[in-house]
Amino acid sequence: MTSASPAEVLQGLLSQRYSCRAFRPEPVDRVILDRAFAAAQRTPSWCNTQPWLVHVASGESREAIAGRLLTEATAARPGNPDFPFPPGYEGVYRDRRRACGVQLYQAVGIGRADRERAQAQALENFRGFGAPHMAFVTTDAALGVYGMLDCGLYLMTLMLCLQAEGVGSIAQAALASYPDIVRDHFGLPAHRRVVCGLSFGHPEETAPVNGYRTARAAPSEVVNWET
Fold first, then answer.
1. Domains of the chain, with CATH numbers?
2. Is the pLDDT score of 112 beyond 90?
3. Which band of pLDDT confidence, cut at 50, 70 and 90, is reported for residue 79?
4. Is the whole model's pTM more than 0.90, yes or no?
5. Phi, psi at 45, each rounded to 5°
C-alpha cells in the first residue's frame, strides 16, 4: 500500500476541518492538547516575533468567562473589539457570507423570518457552542497589523493540529467582542490586544449543525498567473 504524501495528508486535514458548532462536554486529554499546541508553535511569523499569547479556559474558568461574555451579549451591549469588524459586506463577499448563513440556518431548522431563534443561535457563540475549552489569542498592540496577521497564521496552524488529533474547533471573532472582559479575566495588561477566540473539543458528530460544509472558490477565481 502506498502511503500518502505530506501534501496529501495536509490536503486531507484541510478537507476534514470545519467550523464545529456542537461539542461533547468531556474535556480533551491534556496530553493531546499539549501536542497540538507544541506543533502550532512552529507557525512562521514576522521576523520570528511569535507575537501570539494564548490563554485557554477550561472547567470553572471557561464557565466564568463564557458567562460574562454571554451576559454582555444577551443585554445587547455594543461590542468594542480591539480590531473593528467590517462595517458591511458587498459583492462576492456578501454572497459568500449569505450562503454560509443560509446553510447554518437550514441545518438547525431556522426559518428566514424566525428572528428569535436566529438571535438565540447567534448567542451560542458566547457559550462556545458547548465546547469544554475556550482559547483567546492576543497580540501586542505595538506590533500592529503584522502581529494580528501572525496570530491569524497561528490560529490556522493550531486548528489543523487539533484536527490531526481528532479535535474539532471553531475560530470566533464574537469572543473578541468584549476585550476588556477577556483582559480582566486573565489579568492581561492594556497593551495586549484580543485577536480572536477559539472554542474546541470533541465534536458531537451527530448534531445537524455539524452536518453541512461550506464551499470554496475555485483557485482560478483567486489566483492570477502571469508569465
1. 18-84+126-208 (3.40.109.10)
2. no
3. very high
4. yes
5. -150, 165
